[in-house]
Amino acid sequence: MATPNGVKSQSRMGPTVLFYSILLTLQYGAQPLISKRCIGKEVIVTSSVLTCEIVKVICALILMARDGSLKGLSKEWTLMGSLTASGLPAAIYALQNSLLQISYRSLDSLTFSILNQTKIFFTAFFTFIILRQKQSVQQMGALCLLIMAAVLLSVGEGSNKSSSGGVNPEQVLFYGIIPVLVASVLSGLASSLCQWASQVKKHSSYLMTVEMSIVGSLCLLVSTLKSPDGEAIKRHGFFHGWTALTMVPVISNALGGILVGLVTSHAGGVRKGFVIVSALLVTALLQFAFEGKPPSSYCLVALPLVISSISLYQKYPYMDKKKKV
């Protein structure tokens, strides 16, 4: 996720922030549906993830050239500094992206989006462990609501698929629910490490995007030497199963990472929280409009829990009593 080096005042950036927020809401809400409809099951996961990382590098370099930071890159960049700040998060994000691509195929769009919000819980956990960032009582209550929603969906959706006889419940569990929950854990850890690199190491966010994409891509390429995806690429080719539409979710996912950083940089966590809530509603509407099916009863119960959780978490941040006047 990239953010500009300087944070401009929100009063001057009002229209820009609104534009970024609308774009991110649409991207975040539509991404599960776009991925499910445009990426065929025969597409090799590693090929789509690697292509997404390449697009992300191109976008970040363009933005660095635009803000002038690309010119001084040769003076600032060192290999050890890059590996220290971006190496581990890059490897984690590469694995996370692969898990998300697997999960997209086995869950409906809204269920995926709601389960994906558990990353907020794990981000809070790892920021406390790594950065000693504390949570308020209201925030801890909000995180409990989020876990309740995740458990409700995990148990409910699996039994719902089983009773309907449509999809094998074991496939939903092992190729849908578990991958997205593990991806949420990894997302929380990687986000905390990125925050540490940004605050402690003072590493440029756009530069981190480039470094993480490159390192993550190298990790994926090494993994293909022994992985089933690697064998599939050797047998069928890198772009096996691709169509022109496959590039749509790949580009959308790459741009979404840039937009998250822009919204967070210019407007902070509160605006980002409202974007996430709005995106869940967009997902529900798009699923009904394009897939012709209303949300399940489990989603209808879990959705307000997630909305309440995110709203509470953003509204009541931790306040250090020693600093209060």
Structure characterization notes:
With 325 residues, the protein is an all-alpha fold. The protein is 77% helix and 0% strand. The chain has helices at residues 14-38, 45-67, 73-76, 79-104, 109-116, 119-131, 137-164, 169-199, 205-223, 228-236, 247-291, 297-315. Helix 1 crosses helix 5 and helix 4 crosses helix 9 (205-223). The longest helix is centred in the C-terminal third of the chain and has 45 residues, at 247-291. It is globular and about 55 Å long. The two termini are 35 Å apart. Residues 1-13 have low confidence and may be disordered.
**Counting H and I runs of at least 4 residues, what is the number of helices?**
12
Query: Can you count the beta strands?
Result: 0
β content, as a range?
under 5%
User: What's the Cα radius of gyration?
Assistant: 20 Å
3D shape = globular
| Helix coverage percent | over 70%
Which characteristics define this entry?
mainly alpha
Draw up the topology in text.
Layout: H1 14-38, H2 45-67, H3 73-76, H4 79-104, H5 109-116, H6 119-131, H7 137-164, H8 169-199, H9 205-223, H10 228-236, H11 247-291, H12 297-315
Could you write a compact summary of the structure shown?
The protein has 325 residues and is mostly helical. It contains twelve helices and no strands.
